[in-house]
């Protein structure tokens, strides 16, 4: 006669507890059908689903587990599982799995409640909840915190677009980021990350900074903003802005380059990606002059951007083809993936403007970073709350895995 029993053990975390309990089960030649363990603030939650044969042996081994648990200051509970219940559990393993990632400066109970309420309404069952971020020390300023909670959910939403729309709405309401992605073999097996430069790797639009120095800042900034919102054709707007920079001295380019600052988390992200063996690239509608400076500083593998022609120390205002616009970025992403011998599913693209959408849409993971509303709505994922290193959480990496 076979019996299936769920054993739940809770109490203070102690070294050797797992060995002690499973050692008792081993003597009874018990089969382990499922096992899980978590420790939260030094409190253990340990569960084992076991299959036993022989009623007399079952009684003896459960008594031994109960007594050993008492010796170790643990609470032990036994729950019989019927064949029908076990059959339903086995059937459920074939359901699709997804990952919901919550990013916030400080994670609150309301954040968890709202996310879990939406997943429940879309018939997604939460299997695991894990904290990927490190422990936040007392007294850390609120704007410097970094929190990430990952939900592993089982099931397939009937309307994925509606689910994403709800997540986006509460993300805006609560000033958090919520990512929803399929839990596939590619999630931690991506090999190439491509970045936009302006307002993504750096916290400025370089062409706007050059325009300010040339005395045409307002005119160029207006064109840039309309282009990033998708209201203007990028190539036409680029030519118009370049013409306004005619006569700018190269010394100004050097001054602007020295003033540029990296976006929050950019240095950490690139360093981690390099440590993990990822290839990286800048695919920018900006200028190679500045992109190559970033390449040297960060150790970027590839750079594709627009030339900034200079004659006799002055910017000519002319444009050299091919212009790196949205379609060109997508083409370059495909080219680099092929060159690296990987599929597009193994690529990540990060950008903030409408001209980044083509590459964001074809990458395995497309991330709109501190992006315009149109881009956030159109991209697969969006990060606005944390820095660029928040992308590591979307890949499933924990802070303690950092080098």
- Poorly predicted spans: none
| CATH fold assignment of the largest domain | Rossmann fold
Number of domains: 3
Mean pLDDT: 91
C-alpha termini separation: 52 Å
- Strand proportion, as a percent range, falls in 25-35%
Neighbour order of strands in the largest sheet: 11-10-9-14-15-16
Cα shape: elongated
Helicity level: 25-40%
Q: Could you give a short account of the major beta sheet?
A: 6 strands, parallel
- The first-level CATH class name of the largest domain: Alpha Beta
Total helices: the number is 15
If you compute it from the alpha carbons, what radius of gyration comes out, rounded to the nearest whole angstrom?
A: 27 Å
Instruction: Give the second-level CATH assignment, the architecture of the largest domain.
Output: 3-Layer(aba) Sandwich
DSSP summary, beta strand count: 16
CATH homolog superfamily of the largest domain: HAD superfamily/HAD-like
How would you classify the helix and strand content by structural class? alpha/beta
Question: Can you tell me about this structure?
Answer:
With 403 residues, the chain is of the alpha/beta class. The chain has 15 helices and 16 strands. It has three domains: 2-91, 2-Layer Sandwich (Alpha-Beta Plaits); 96-182, Alpha-Beta Plaits (2-Layer Sandwich); 192-401, Rossmann fold, CATH 3.40.50. A six-stranded parallel sheet has the order 11-10-9-14-15-16, with helices on both faces. Strand 15, helix 14 (373-378) and strand 16 form a beta-alpha-beta unit. Helix 7 (217-228) runs antiparallel to helix 8. It starts with a strand and ends in a 9-residue tail after the last helix. It comes from Pseudomonas neustonica. Pathway: Amino-acid biosynthesis; L-serine biosynthesis; L-serine from 3-phospho-D-glycerate: step 3/3. It is an enzyme of class 3 (hydrolase). GO terms for molecular function: hydrolase activity.
